[in-house]
Amino acid sequence: MAAASDIVLEAERITKTFPGVRALGGVSVRARRGRLLALLGENGAGKSTLMNILAGVFPPDEGTLRLDGRAVSFSNPRAALAAGIGIVFQELNLIPHLSVAENIFLGREPRTRLGLIDYPRLNADAAAVLGRLALAVEPTALIADLRVGQQQLVEIARALSAEARVLILDEPTSSLSEHEVAVLFGVIADLKRRGVALIYITHKFDELAHVCDDVTIMRDGCVVGEFPYAELTRDALVRLMAGRESKETFLKSPAALGAELLRVEAICLPGGGAGRPFLVENVSFTLRRGEVLGIFGLVGAGRTELLETMFGLHAGRATGQLTLEGKSVDFASPAAAVAAGLALAPEDRKRDGLVLPMSVAANASLASLERTLRGGFVSRSREAAYIAPYVERFRVKTPSLDQLIVNLSGGNQQKVILAKWLATDPKLLLLDEPTRGIDVNAKREIYAFIDELARNGLGLIVVSSELPEILALADRVLVMCEGRKTAEFPRADATAEKILAAAFPVTSATAA
Amino acid sequence: MSDPKPNFSLRRFQSLLALALLVGALSVLSDNFLTPDNGWNILRQISVNLCLSIGMTLVILSGGIDLSVGAILGLAGAVAAGLLKNGVVLGALDARLEFTVTGAIVAGLAVGAAAGWFNGFAITRFQLPPFVATLGMLSIARGLTMLWTGGFPVTSLGPTFGFIGTGAFLGAPMPVWIMLALVAVFVVVTRRTRFGRHIYAVGGNERAARLTGLNVPRIKLAVYTLAGALAGVAGLIVTARLDSAQPNAGLGYELDSIAAVVIGGTPLSGGRGSIWGTVLGCLIIGVLNNGLFLLNVSPFWQQVIKGGVILLAVALDKMNANSRDSA
User: N or C, fewer C-beta in 10 Å, chain B?
Assistant: First the structure.
């Protein structure tokens, strides 16, 4: 086994408490030279808190950090980076209107003798880092013009450029294409050869086989297991994470299809930008009550835009025909769509789904507040009484309804959003990446809810870039590529190969 | 539930404590401070700022800012005074439309509300940043006031109109009654109505509010219109109190009202805070001004001290927020 002297970064008995939540209760982890430590655990297990402490975002309440055997404490992420600890957060932290190179070297810009930024060197250095990641973008390109996957790689380039000796990656592959993932794994292998210690957080077990050396499993703010990767089975991993035996896959119950709920005809949304006049081009489909329609596509395929268009978010720009329960509808705003019985759980929960300064109850009741009024006035007791069954139905883990939503884990936040919509008695639920950044067990719970809602006669549209999720959930699969619908399969015919073949752009496949 | 409870009481307590300390210190330092007369004085003095600040609180809670309230105050007061005194000359008919006191008051409020509505319209329809839209209105309203008055005060408005500013009812000055009534109404609006909750939601996350089906433009329009109408109320009080509409009335008042809101614990980022906090903020500023005056502190130093208090209040609030938001 690795010797003690190989330990680069060691966290010992770290505790951290937030108001109402004990995030970490005495956690110890060790990152070793040239090895990758995978940190696994459900959402809310404390992984992100631990990462933030290691990277100097906030200090621990108790416990020590040791770098090369010496106790250290960082007052901010910059100090941690200067000491050799780099971190790539799951959520992007780039400045959209600065260039790629400026973002990579932000705060560490090379300067001329006059103290001005040395742009030739800045761009050359950036180009070198981008080359290591095989990222084909100009150092002078604006971040805003890059795809999300490319932006994620720029984040990684930033950490690489600092020559970090410890590199922390928090779900780095969540928005990368398969090719980009392969390149990233190559970079990781290269970093390991150079002796960099890596800490890697992921929910995708499949990735571990390619990169992982050691595994630390966390649950409820504690470490529940530490193993070399080779000694672990997938079932054991899941069991330790959840603290209980769990079934490997989710099986959807057969659909009991009702009448046609929704007919979508020739939806177009202009404005794709360079070489792409339409974000959504001529998409048509139907949905019946009790049916789950899965929409698969790569990042940028126009899936989110399709949902947004149906939801009235692009009124005035989009064209096409929407028929709900036999009646032609044209939503001028999301408010009109909600009034007609639609509901949308957006992909980016923090940005689009939650009012972070508000409580769980206020978030959950936001769409149905008028149903809880007493004499025309908001009544907190009636509001709580109305919303509590929904919050309980989705088994939201929260100390109380008055807890601020920001203190909940991602999975629980998503459940609050589902509760919010169910409280409006919707007919049609649009779910955009409903399990993004959510751990396996919360995922399975959400799958079961989707199944149950379909059995209750709702129509559901689930957009996902995870193939297993689509295959598990959907009664019918619609595939999109570059804004167009490229295929549609009933459940029986839907296979991973067929779906992927339809999802990849023909031109780039032949060019590649 | 839109008020984040755990820290909310702490923050309220903090402002209350600051106010209590201030009152205690001034009572010791000056014999004239803790008297009934001076108490009414302070309340009357803060009534104008509090009217403006209630509207400002709504605007800031919704995630915006309103720089035009001082100018709208001046315009509304001037319009009411002008109509009351001169009416409207209808040139074509060779006639003059006379205004009763009630008519003039309604017109003043309507002008305030219209100016505020225009702010909201510019912000929602043309997506102007609130800072820019209301900066434009600041200049427009001040200019219109000058045009309307020709740059001269409109004076001698009569005792009936003057009652709003100088009268008393059940022993309390009218401005204080108006102020208390507005506080009561808007505490209920923010805490107990759907509209109030929606203001918090829009300020907390506008995108999420929109995707949840709230009519965000309508909410904002209402908020800015209310802020304008409340500036109109303030304008009527100022005008009635002085028995004259000064073209420069309300100059710079927007900054005092922003200060009161911020001292009261409503951050400029919106989404949290309360009318109660703003009441305390106005009281702190009012007591400070009054006390420093009684202590013969130079008005120049008063400004410096007021600035220091704003910085201190926000710094304390920030420290609270940091220990909380790190989750």
Answer: C
